[in-house]
Fold this sequence. Notes:
By secondary structure, chain A is mostly helical. Helices cover 50% and strands 0% of the residues of chain A. Chain A contains 17 helices and no strands. In chain A, helix 1 packs across helix 2, helix 6 runs antiparallel to helix 7 and helix 9 packs antiparallel against helix 10. Chain A starts with 9 loop residues before the first helix and ends with a helix. By secondary structure, chain B is mostly helical. Chain B is built from 9 helices and no strands. In chain B, helix 5 packs across helix 8, helix 7 packs across helix 9 and helix 8 packs across helix 9. The interface between A and B is large, with 42 and 59 residues.
Amino acid sequence: xSDHRFDLTDAQVEAVITGRNGDAGLALLTRTxxxxxxxxxxxPSQPPTVLIAQAAAIAREKAPVHEPRKAPRPRRVWRxxxxxxxxxxxxxxxxPLAVLADASSPNDVLYPVDRFFERxxxxxxxxxxxxxxxxxxxERGDVxxxxxxLADSMRGAGPDEIEANLTRVSGLVAxxxxxxxxxxxxxxxxxxxxTLPPGLDPENQPGNGNPNTGPGNNSGNxxxxxxxxxxxxxxxxxxxxxxxxxxxxxxxxxxSGNPNxxxxxxxxxxxxxxxxxQGGPPEDPGKAGPxxxNPNQGPGNxxxxxxxxGNGNPNQGPGNNSGNxxGTGxx
Amino acid sequence: xxxxxxxxxLIGRPNRIERARRGDESxxxxxxxxxxxxxxxxxxxxxxxxxEDLAGEVFLQVARDIHKxxxxxxxxxSWVFVIAHRxxxxxxxxxxxxxxxxxxxxxxxxxxxxEDEAMERVETDxxxxxxxxxxxxxxxxxALRVIGxxxxxxxxxxxxxTVGAVKALQHRALRTIRIEIEQxxxxx
Lengths: 331, 188
């Protein structure tokens, strides 16, 4: 059985513990509990300096050190390394392909690859490259495709680009025209030729090897219609380049005088390239009119005045000299 | 009381804990001066024979763990007693494994003359003997409240019990002591 005489209320307990009890009945208990506080005095009155220094040292050692921020490691370099390796691999794989594709022409397997690279800015050779491709196609005998490719390239090229490649275009047109194109292809070539400046008209280009369109003949004729009467004069050139025209006693109608009024403004004549037969008046075609007798009067001799002199006399005069143009033509 | 002590601590020793964390010896001297007595007394009240040495170990443990402590001055005091309480438990476990000794010596008293020291020793023995009559939990709670000067809440936090449980324990502890002293079983 418990003895309730010794029970304490909460307030009494707190009063005893804090030493503020005023209850006489609890005085002995309060004093005894108060004496327990004297146990605090067991600690040394003088702080042990060694222990304190040791505690401070431990705290210093354990304290988190605020280290200065380390210099950033070259992590970024390593982070970029895979990308760099990938790019290097891509370059190693793509570069040879681009080089191979660059040399391809429209019929080749790699040609789409070449155009793809050009679209993304790799190896874009522009019109010059297109012309090379057309030349390759022409050399392979694929005149139609070469012509079509040339036409497409011309359409896709800018004026400056065309201007820079006029000579090549002109030469290529002439070559393709000489390669026996189909009628449709010849028409395309004509269209291209018409876009060229007068001085670069492929029909007036020297050395195209076409006896019918030989520059010597054409220029001699001052005829913009190649092959009209030129064949006769060309054929007469037994030794091209040597006394051309002089041995051609048969000055064809076209040679001896151009009935074509266009001839008055014919390119050949305008440029002074007219020669034999030009001395004759337009009204007298087929007649080897004596140049001296009618110098500088024929419309066809508009600017070929001096040349007309020799036309009447194939063996003499500067007209013969101007006949050298025939010599550049292939027989 | 706790609030007043807390304010005094904050006003009188600003940043003491922070200075102690940095290894400031003066801060550690202040901590020792304030807590060494209560901790040593608490350990002695629990019957720790070499309470002063164990209090020194508690002090060094506080130094090792102070960078983990998060709180104010008031919670720092109860945190120190948590360490002391655990050390006392460890000591008890260790003492049980050892063969019993004839007597457990109390800390040597310092200073004063021999007579005074003898008187203090007698008084200490008497108090420890009185506390020895309590249950383990009653002894711990009463020692924390009286010697450690902890509040009900702080005591509850140290022993890991509710405030109500602590109240009940201190009621029984005081009743036991009252019976002991009023029935003359303990010589006064």
